[in-house]
Amino acid sequence: MRNPIVLLLTLVAALSVAGCQAAFPPNAATVEGLLIEDLYKLVFVIAAIVFLLVQGLVIWSVIRYRRKASDVALPAQTHGNLVLEIVWTVIPLVTVIGLFFASSQVLGVVDARKPEEVSVKVEVVGYQWQWKFGYPDEGFEIYGTAQNYPELVVPIDERIEVTLVAQDVNHGFYIPEFLFQRDLVPGQVNHFEFTPNKLGTFAGQCSAFCGLLHHAMGFSVRVVTREEYDAWLTEMKPDPSASTSPAPDAADLSGTVKEWSIELSSATSTSGEVSIGLTNGGTVPHEFIVVRTDLTTEELLTKVDSASNRLDEAMLDAAGEQSEFAPGEVKLLTLDLSPGKYIVLCNIAGHFSNGMYAPLEILAN
Question: Is pLDDT of 156 > 90?
Answer without folding.
Answer: yes
